Amino acid sequence: MRTIQGEEKLKAVFGAWPSFHDAEVWGLAYERVPEGFSVVAVIHAFQMTSEVDARGYYVLKNHAKVRIRFDRCSDAALDGFNHQNVLSGLDITEPEQAAPDSSFQVRFDTSYGLAGSLRCKDIVVEDVQPWRPPFGVYAEPGAPPNGGPTKPSGKSGGAGGPPSVS
């Protein structure tokens, strides 16, 4: 099997290529390039441990924002992107005894939201950064819903109304 450029970035965080089970697609973009088009996906990924927290949920670790570029694409059929795009998996395969210029088959298996598939000649893991979403089910426990301060800043200058924006 051909290698995926930059896969070592994922392996450094997760120890192996992750399944992307329950990962969320936060961004999806099509880009024209000289050799056709590319699809760029921004995915919140994490590792599920076998530990259970006080609420009875599995403990998740290594939250990361993963940016993957699928280059020289064809046969892209991606649909259903909305306010929450939960994957049951991100499956990448290529034909047995593939020629050097054969296509990868990429399937965005869905639990909710975005689903579909594409073919591409190259896959590049562009970036993997520690990250937790600012809102939603995977936000930092106890975080305010918009990622802002939990207490009034005291800088509004007003008496009793919302803080001013400057």
Q: How is this structure best described in words?
A:
The chain has one helix spanning 7-14, and strands spanning 24-33, 36-52, 58-79, 86-93, 104-112, 115-130. It has 166 residues and is mainly β. The protein has one domain (7-130). Mean pLDDT is 86; it is low at 146-153, 155-159 and 161-166.
Present the secondary structure layout.
Layout: H1 7-14, E1 24-33, E2 36-52, E3 58-79, E4 86-93, E5 104-112, E6 115-130
Antiparallel strand pairs: 1-2, 2-3, 3-6, 4-5, 5-6
Question: What is the rounded distance between the termini?
Answer: 55 Å
Count of helical regions: 1
Strand count, sense and closure of the main sheet? 6 strands, antiparallel
The backbone outline, from C-alpha atoms, is globular
Mean pLDDT: 86
Order of helices and strands: HEEEEEE
| Class of secondary structure makeup | mainly beta
Number of strands: 6
Oligomer: single chain
Amount of helix: under 10%
